[in-house]
Amino acid sequence: xxxxxxxxxxxxxxxxxxxxxxxxxxxxxxxxxxxxxxxxxxxxxxxxxxxxxxxxxxxxxxxxxxxxxxxxxxxxxxxxxxxxxxxxxxxxxxxxxxxxxxxxxxxxxxxxxxxxxxxxxxxxxxxxxxxxxxxxxxxxxxxxxxxxxxxxxxxxxxxxxxxxxxxxxxxxxxxxxxxxxxxxxxxxxxxxxxxxxxxxxxxxxxxxxxxxxxxxxxxxxxxxxxxxxxxxxxxxxxxxxxxxxxxxxxxxxxxxxxxxxxxxxxxxxxxxxxxxxxxxxxxxxxxxxxxxxxxxxxxxxxxxxxxxxxxxxxxxxxxxxxxxxxxxxxxxxxxxxxxxxxxxxxxxxxxxxxxxxxxxxxxxxxxxxxxxxxxxxxxxxxxxxxxxxxxxxxxxxxxxxxxxxxxxxxxxxxxxxxxxxxxxxxxxxxxx
Length: 432
Hints:
Elements: H1 22-39, H2 41-44, H3 48-77, H4 80-112, H5 140-145, H6 152-158, H7 161-178, H8 183-204, H9 207-222, H10 231-256, H11 260-266, H12 268-277, H13 284-293, H14 298-311, H15 314-330, H16 337-353, H17 361-372, H18 387-412, H19 418-427
């Protein structure tokens, strides 16, 4: 009698207890932060450094991670024609989708009209023009010039994402031209990137504490009551973001052959984290690792995702469109459709002007209003109290849009392992 060899059962993934899940921990930290900020504002106002330390830990390595990812991805391909093709496709995609975002933002704010009837006198408001970041207030020529760093060291020291990206692409192309002689350098770059991701994994352990401190400070500083006068704007903007997901991102994902819902579930920890920190930089390394694990080729992730961080501001464009028209409504500024179309064209340019400048949305908004010469710049003070709430929504939208963009461009390039993508999205992210 012949015994059949026993088939080895596939081990089922061990499910973590709910309290060990980072998403739960971040949500708990945010809930405790709201409670502390509301009940003990004196304490909550002192907790801002908790969030700032976490963001600085990420910012400390994000430039090097972009360099390592882009360099290793492009130099490993050794096909500079493919690199150029990916870049062109990505830029075209970014411009089309951000245009749709601006149109949705303008239509929704004009239909709901949350600012009509406020009758705000802009002369009574304090202008924030003196706080505009110099890098956000630049002409198109200066923007092009600012793409190229005076030195590579300066770009890394100042955390200029666009400049780091330009240097990384040029350096990677130089390595690709060397062929096999570049292999030792690529091995070193790969080892450095692995070390940096270890730093990120350690930093993520304090993410719940960071979210707790950031939310506690926000509530303590501005108070829960600050949401009441501007609740209509907050509700309108949240609805606008939902419409963008339903009208734009969901059809794109479906057409590209993957589930938007499953993708958002896969990156849920990063999405929840940016709600607490309002910083997209805080999740860049994690998204790079997860998109690669989904089966997207390293060359595509290394080029498209950093570029998306600079050019694909879906949520920020929704914010600019909604807040600009809201301020016009609140101050009684006449703004016809012709002027709003002009505003849309200006926003397409100015939304890129703050790329690489952390927290530049208010600064770029001020620059946009100054460029239109119709909406009072001083009226920006109206939205300062709820800007943090709005920024959580548009950074959330930016992150989701950037991940969709990376997968779509990867699909166009046939650079996605579709079987692996389907399996990973079906099972969900499993920490190593």
